[in-house]
Task: structure prediction
Amino acid sequence: MMHHLVRRHAAGAAIAAAILGCSAVVVPAPHHAQSRGSIAGRVVATDSTPVVGAIISVDGTRVGTQTGADGRFRLRGIDAGVHTVHARRAGLIPASHEVDVRPGATAQLSFTLRDEARALEEVTIIGSRSDLVETRDRMARVPGAVALVTPLEIRSTRQANIKDVLSFTPGVYVQPRFGAADESQLSIRGSGLRNNFHARGVNLLVNGMPYRNADGFTDFESLEMLTTQAIEVYKGANALRYGGSTLGGAINFDTKTGDTAPVLSLFGQGGSFGFRKLQVASGDVFGNFDYYASYARTSLDNYRAWSDQQRDRVNLHAGQRLSDRLDARAFYFYAHVNEHLPGALTRSEFDADPRQAVAANVSDRWGREYDLHHVGVQLRAQLSPHQRLDISPYAQYRDIDHPIYEVIAQVSR
Result:
């Protein structure tokens, strides 16, 4: 199945223009606002008293609000169609309802939240749809600033790099150095802006396991957005659960599993300057066992000479539910990255030929090539209705060959 860049809204047209390397001014159609409606309602407790400060959110959107002193809420600018609306408040059991939003109309909803503690009799399978719901509920209880990028939000982007999927997350800044490349400047609330490349001050994790070098530097080239199911963003001190070096925040990439992936998926994408992205993937569930496998290649010729890039990525996951209270998962991802570095031009060189590379960079073969292997095991045990134990050992190996003004050759474990 080929995915095509089809967008009905102005935001989609702007993304398509960026991929094709062209400039465009998009004027929304006058009828666009008329294709949206509103949702209004009230949240009460079991004794019919209003629930104040309940968080109201809509699946697949970033639209949200909180209930007022009378427990009432209103959401505006909702696309017409059927949506799932969630109501949450700390100490209460969340509730969800489907609602059909009509253009120019206001749909009415009412929620009743119970105040009894929710007990987990069985373990939530790692990477399952119920795991995502549990993550959403847990993040809704965090008193500080957090964000959850849902699968629908990820799939609606180009998915070429982390800038694509995090561009609309408040407080997060991502700027690639070479267009569609993954080598980016990453910052949450200004932390790490002093670094022109790689990332420091922000912890990156994959399935809750650290993804970084021992010195805190992080590369992005091994992360494949097509295999990412959801992204958790913890801003500032809200990331302290992931260690003492995370005052800049943390980003956790939850990957797909057999429970959330189709049996067979083919993905193809292309754009200007030789941009190509291909993926073949498969996932399925057999009783208590599930698997997910993906191979993806991203390549880019780029605008300048000696600036071509290629990434080959493999993701393998396998999970086994050992009992109602015990779940185990093993995962492995591999990346081979090869890119050339054209160097910086002077003003006169740029005016003469903006596409040229620095001659010394070509003759000395400036570039960056590395192989990364990352393997991990996760064990989740439900000890009691309110106690869970997670154990996640992992290992990472990277071999990098980086000829620049001097040759940097590193092997890190």
User: Anything to note?
Assistant: DSSP finds six helices and 23 strands in the chain. The helical segments are 10-19, 129-140, 151-155, 162-166, 347-352, 359-363.
